[in-house]
Structures are given as structure tokens and as C-alpha cells.
Amino acid sequence: MGGASVYLHCFDTHVCYLDMGRYLFAGMAPAVLLLLVLPLLCHHRYWRLRYQLFLLRAPVHGRWRWEHWHYTYDTFVSYNSGDERWVLEELVECRALRLCLHHRDFCPGRAIVDNIVDAVYNSRHTVCVVSRGYLRS
Q: Which of 30-34, 62-66, 88-92, 133-137 is least confident?
């Protein structure tokens, strides 16, 4: 191998007396605490974290570009089908507003949640007709 040969009796014993426990504790304790606390935070703050993620992703998806936003409807009206007569008589009679009504403007075959989200984003305002039937549904 070239060079001077090293024998076992010439081994530096200073390495054997190093206190590695302190270094291992200093490195592992924060990692273990993080792994214990992170799931608890995720469990207790799930919706808050999800909302923060939505806020971070919103500019990427263009949800908050209000100055360039052209609304399809003035108002999205959310109501129960039992209140449809009242909505048609009271709200639709006002021809000055472009209303988004689920029986007329929702796309058939799409998930109801997707239709509602699109209606909210494409409307300047949202009106909920809250009745007993609406609360039961």
C-alpha cells in the first residue's frame, strides 16, 4: 500500500473517549419533537392549513385578478326547490339583474359542487334564500 504501516497498538485512543451521546441527542431531539408535533398541528389546524394553502395557490390559478374579471351574472341565488315559486315571483321579476338560478344555469352532468363553485366565481354577489326547507337540505 505504500507509506508507513499503522499497527493496532498505534491506534489513537482519543477517539474512544469522545462523548457522542451529547452530539446524537442534540441532533435527534429536535427531529423527534418535530415528528411528534407536526401531526398534532396538522390534526388541530387542518382547515386553517388548508385555507393557507388555498391562499398560496390562488394567485397561480388566477382567482384574484378582479380588475380583469368579467362576471357572467350579477347574483347567484341559492335556494331550496320548495322556495322556487317565491324566487321566481320576487327576484326574477326584477329584470335589471342577471341572476344565476340552478334549474336554468347549471350544467347537467357536472357535479353539483363544481356547478356551485363556478356560479359563485362567475357572480358578483351571492344571495341565499334561507328557509326551513333550505336548512333541512
A: 62-66
